[in-house]
C-alpha cells in the first residue's frame, strides 16, 4: 500500500458513503471544531438518553480523511455510554481507518475534539 489515503478502501468508503451524515433537530448536545490552517470544520450532534448516545449526526467541511474520520467516529460511539466514549481517541480513529499519511492525522484529532466538545456541552447543560 502506498502512503496515499486514496489507496485506503476504508477511508474512501466513508468519504463516498458517510454514515450518520446530516443535522439533527433539537440535539441534546452539539460540538464544533475547526482548523484555520487546513480549513476543516466539524459539527457533531448528539441525542443522549440515560448517558447513552442514542443518535449521532455530523457535518464536516473538509477533505476525504476529515469526512471519513467523523463518519467512522459516529459508528464507534453510537449506542455507547458517555464514559465509554471518553476512551475514543484520535489514535483509535486512526486504527479504525487504517493507514494514512502523517499530514492527514490531524483530521482524526479534530474528530475526537468535536466529540469531546459535544459531550462537554451536554454535561454543562445537564449540570446547569
Mean pLDDT: 93
Parts with pLDDT < 50 across at least 5 consecutive residues: none
Give the topology string: H per helix, E per strand: HEEEHHHH
- The gross shape turns out to be globular
What percent strand?
A: 15-25%
User: What Rg, in angstroms, do the CA atoms define?
Assistant: 14 Å
Structural class: alpha+beta
Counted up, domains total 1
Structure description:
- It is built from 5 helices and 3 strands, in the order H-E-E-E-H-H-H-H.
- About 45% of the residues lie in helices and about 20% in strands.
- It is globular, with a radius of gyration of 14 Å.
- The chain is of the alpha+beta class and about 130 residues long.
- The mean pLDDT is about 95.
List strands and helices in order, with pairings.
Layout lengths: L8 H8 L12 E6 L6 E9 L2 E10 L2 H14 L4 H4 L4 H8 L8 H21 L2
Antiparallel strand pairs: 1-2, 2-3
Amino acid at each position: 500500500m502506498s502512503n496515499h489515503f486514496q489507496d485506503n478502501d476504508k477511508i474512501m468508503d466513508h468519504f463516498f458513503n458517510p454514515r450518520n451524515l446530516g443535522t439533527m433537530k433539537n440535539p441534546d448536545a452539539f460540538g464544533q471544531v475547526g482548523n484555520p490552517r487546513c480549513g476543516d470544520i466539524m459539527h457533531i450532534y448528539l441525542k443522549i438518553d440515560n448517558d447513552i448516545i442514542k443518535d449521532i449526526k455530523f457535518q464536516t467541511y473538509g477533505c476525504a480523511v476529515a469526512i471519513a474520520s467523523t463518519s467512522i467516529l459516529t459508528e464507534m460511539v453510537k449506542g455507547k455510554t458517555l464514559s465509554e466514549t471518553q476512551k475514543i481517541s484520535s489514535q483509535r480513529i486512526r486504527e479504525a481507518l487504517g493507514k494514512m499519511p502523517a499530514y492527514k492525522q490531524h483530521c482524526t484529532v479534530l474528530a475526537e475534539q468535536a466529540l469531546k466538545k459535544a459531550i462537554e456541552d451536554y454535561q454543562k447543560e445537564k449540570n446547569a
